[in-house]
Amino acid sequence: MIKIPKNEISRKVIHILSSVMPLSYLWFIEDKSLMVYILVGMSLLALVIEYLRNSWTLFSRLFNALFYYMLREHELKGKLTGATWLLIGWSITVILFNIPIAVAALLFLSIGDSFAALGGKLFPKVIIGNKTLSGTLCGLLISFTFVLMINQSLLPIVILIGAIAAMGIELIPLRINDNLTIPIFSGSVMMVADRLL
């Protein structure tokens, strides 16, 4: 068993806690237009913060004082942070899909991706690139179970297909940030499956 770095634990805890947003969309907000405004507004704010941390020394020092321990090497060099990609991915997903599919896809990202990473680091079996099959299966099982429990309208087979798509695309070493690929790809697959089944 491999010890997980503290910064990765912090990132994954925040990632899991971000599931509050799709759950709020499902149970409280229930208005696509309002959710789009909220998420696009948050995404634009995140992009402004990204700009300021890369162009204003004082702001950069403040940002790094607060978040340095959580940032990955490429983020420290000025690339967009995972949080910004997360908000952009959420925005696109909510724009593209109806509420049940969007919520499921966002939960596959927040829950599935997190447990895939943690499971893969704790029990690294069958290594594929910098990912593990054991992590993928962990993310698949936990995210499928969670979405199935809170589901209100999707067929279980559609959820399973979506979970497989989400964790499958997470396993592939793509250059595109998985905060974009996981919800958009799994949402697209579920949308097709929901229409066909």
General description of the model:
By secondary structure, this protein is mostly helical. 78% of the residues lie in helices and 2% in strands. The protein contains ten helices and two strands; from the N terminus they run H-H-H-H-H-H-H-E-E-H-H-H. It has helices spanning 6-17, 20-29, 32-55, 57-67, 73-76, 82-96, 99-122, 133-150, 156-171, 178-196, and strands at 127-128, 131-132. The protein has a two-stranded antiparallel sheet with strand order 1-2. Helix 1 (6-17) runs antiparallel to helix 7 and helix 3 (32-55) packs across helix 4. The longest helix is centred in the first third of the chain and has 24 residues, at 32-55. It is globular, with a radius of gyration of 17 Å.
Radius of gyration: 17 Å
Strand content: under 5%
Chain-averaged pLDDT: 90
**Number of separate strands:** 2
- What's the order of the H and E elements? HHHHHHHEEHHH
Helix content: over 70%
What is the distance, rounded to the nearest whole angstrom, between the alpha carbons of the first and last residues? Answer: 41 Å
Outline the secondary-structure elements:
Elements: H1 6-17, H2 20-29, H3 32-55, H4 57-67, H5 73-76, H6 82-96, H7 99-122, E1 127-128, E2 131-132, H8 133-150, H9 156-171, H10 178-196
Antiparallel strand pairs: 1-2
